[in-house]
């Protein structure tokens, strides 16, 4: 649970003495799993900061969903629209589990931006990181077969949520096959078959919805040269 302003990347450089001023502009909200916080193309202006829980950022076209990213505690949502001249939402956001957020108005957010130039710099850095993520997503969707896509995503998830677990590597994030499929733009049947192949080959295992990389080196070999700079697999470096 995020409890301090300093734990929020976009506000990290605001002096601690000014934290009460920021907190006074925030309204706490709770959302249940599967609640949609915003719909793409809707007109709304509020900014959200995730305190606990996880949400997916996605778009839908002709009934097909593509997940653009997963946002975690400390992430900010809606700041791009607040900083632009157009209040139409860029994407939809849905709670993947029960979520607690801080909510603020566009006007309050812009006042903070005016008062603390570091917030605008951080917003730019966050935008660059998201652009990197979208570039990688485009590469996955455009150039790779399902096997290479799945291997890349598992390695990405490890770089962002992984930790050593004995001789194996655990992705410390509960994630189901439907979400994985929507992150790669493939059918659930395709991702299920591919993950089954990986499991039969001794590359991965699943326990209680957690993925374990049993042979991380071989998974990275499947990725081949799809990421020349492994450090760029990190989604956020703000």
How would you explain this protein's 3D organization?
The protein is an alpha+beta fold and 238 residues long. Helices cover 39% and strands 24% of the residues. It contains 8 helices and 12 strands. It has helices at 19-23, 79-83, 106-115, 117-143, 146-161, 177-184, 188-200, 216-223, and strands spanning 27-31, 36-38, 47-52, 55-61, 64-71, 76-77, 92-95, 99-104, 162-165, 168-171, 204-207, 210-213. The protein has a 4-stranded antiparallel β-sheet. A 4-stranded antiparallel β-sheet has the order 2-7-4-5. β11 and β12 (210-213) form a beta hairpin. α3 (106-115) packs across α4, α5 crosses α8 and α6 packs across α7 (188-200). The protein is globular and about 55 Å long. The protein starts with 18 loop residues before the first helix and ends in a 15-residue tail after the last helix.
Label the structural class: alpha+beta
* Integer average pLDDT: 93
The count of strands amounts to 12
**Which regions are unreliable across 5 or more consecutive residues at pLDDT < 50?**
none
Residue share in β-strands: 15-25%
Q: Please work out how many helical segments DSSP would assign.
A: 8
Give the strand order of the largest sheet, numbering strands 1, 2, ... along the chain.
1-8-3-6
What is the overall shape?
globular
Query: What is the alpha-carbon Rg in Å?
Result: 19 Å
Which sheet architecture does the biggest sheet show? 4 strands, antiparallel
* Cα-to-Cα separation, first versus last residue: 19 Å
Helix content: 25-40%
Question: H/E order of the elements?
Answer: HEEEEEEHEEHHHEEHHEEH
